[in-house]
Amino acid sequence: MKTSISTTAANQFAKTASERQQLSCKVIKGFHLLRLKCVSSWRYRYTDAAGKRKTLTIGEYPALKPQEAAQIALEWRVGITKGEADPIAKRQAIAAQKRAQEQLQAQRENLKLGRFFEHYSKVLKDSPDVLGKISLAFSFLFERDMDMITPHDIDKWYQEKREAGLKRSTLVGYFGALKAMLNYAAGTKKGQSNHEPVLTVNPLAGYTLPQLTKEERKALRQEDNKMMAMRDIFSPEVKAAILKGLDSYAEELRAKRRRSLRLAKNQHLPSLDDVAFPHWFIPFTQIAMMTGMRPGDIYALRWENLDHNPFNGKYTLIYTPKKTEHKGDDPIKVIFNLGTQHPLIDTLTTWRKQQGNPKTGLIFPSERVSGEMDRKAHLKHWKHVKELGGVPDGLQFYSFRHNFISDLVRKGKSPELIRKLVGHADTSMITKNYMRTDDHDMEALTALAADSWGNHTTSPAKAVGGE
Fold first, then answer.
1. What is the pTM of this model?
2. Does this UniProt record's set of keywords contain Nuclease (predicted)?
């Protein structure tokens, strides 16, 4: 018999005892049943090594029967007699260990790439393109703890994507986005503070993507040569073809509307003969021609970006390139001074009047959804304009930006001034890709070197004739 308290006695006590009354065991010193307001509770009272009286709760009655509760009390008493840890201290130690395990588990959960990506998405909420790269390229690692990601994982990913035909430049961009997020997780991302890092160090801090093979370097050179050609100034013939294509497209749209209006059911459609721009793509293209803006930045343009000074009549186009919106507290701002005579003023004011003279909102809003158009909406119109004007099929719409920069470089304008006008962070892109002489300059240079020999050289024709 472990206790003098029987089940019958416990039942009777639980029913009739007053609050705070105790039923003590005559066998196990300190073991008792305490009546509380709503339940009865098994308790064990003892004296610790320091001589302090303490009481431990064993459990509730009737969930815990007298013999079961007594067994626990006996085990505690034996432990105290042997000098083992105090039951309360032991219980506290177990609870602390459990809390530590729970905290560690929570930390491990936060270490998962996918979980941290959710947090990072809030930090970088204004940079959907960057977040899209991480989600698209590395979702297969979202269940992996960030500190367990290895260079081998990235090597394998890189090889698979290269074999699938993705360009190295694309993969460099994807990896750069991932590495930046891991730097942020470790609290080391440049220009972006994170005061609660979850990593002690970025596991890919010293890693670089595999070097290009010989064949890949050859293909890259060919691609660079192709891009270099695209960055050259449009020839007069190409410019004329573009303008012809735009004029033909405008007339085609007007003629199509006239045919529609001849049908009774289409009488609600407005005539396009009385408007300057029968389609948004035409002023959209004129902006690209005259500013070198990226298509994505033109889609994001708002009427608020066009400032008019009523005192001197000058216009200024001010905007932040979308590529740099997320970079620091003071992102790049392009200030395009148009003065009073720039042809772009006429384009914008005419288009504004045609749209009902809005003072705010997108310059080219989507007609189907609220907000910006799809960033590829211009491509089908550009394709058709090229067909109508006889423009080389390979000429991309982005080439308007290349032409704009190349033209300013060719005219001897300062790379620093050009950088500010096109929204580059520095002049490195311009000096690397645009600061080059044309074929005519090179021909003159080589001829100049030959002229230095004067008449001291003998032409092959004369040499042959002399024989």
1. 0.59
2. no
